[in-house]
Amino acid sequence: MQPVERAEYEGVDYAWVMQTTFVVTILVGAPVVALLSTLVTLETWGARAAFAVRVGAPIWFVTAVAVALYARRSDAGDGGSDGDATAGAERDADADSSAERDADAAAGDGDAVTGDDGPETAGSTAGPTDGAEKGD
Questions:
Q1: Cα separation of 129 and 117, whole Å?
Q2: Looking at residue 74, what is its pLDDT?
């Protein structure tokens, strides 16, 4: 089995920023919109939806900017802290040793291949019936 490739990127993890923005906006923004809606008369569903968009969009934008600035300043969402560096090194070492075992198995760990008729060289094209034909 091939080891899973991993990439290490430096900088802001934008996937983390998007996910955190979504969660924080739902947790904080929805109650804010609900509280602000009590101050306004909203008679139709269209008016309620328009109000939610007008108030929710700036909340979403401010949350996204705040989360992005936090991520840039604190290296948040980088996949772990320095304590995880040793775990990552161990995981990479395991993947390397697994890849070496796979490569050794594919190469045959030498030039001899053992078959039903005994060892043959890896480059040999002689099959099991070739020896019988030579005896005729």
A1: 10
A2: 86
- Measured in degrees and rounded to the nearest 5, phi and psi for residue 121 equal -80, 155
Neighbours of 80 (CB within 10 A): 10
Give 81 or 37, the one with higher predicted confidence: 37
Confidence category of residue 90, pLDDT binned at 50, 70, 90 = low
φ and ψ of 103, to 5 deg: -65, -40
C-alpha to C-alpha distances, 58 to 22, 47, 69, 124, nearest whole angstrom: 13, 17, 16, 73
pLDDT for residue 115: 52
The answer as to whether 9 is a domain residue is: no
Q: Structural domain of residue 57, as residue ranges? A: 14-79
Number of structural domains found in the chain: 1
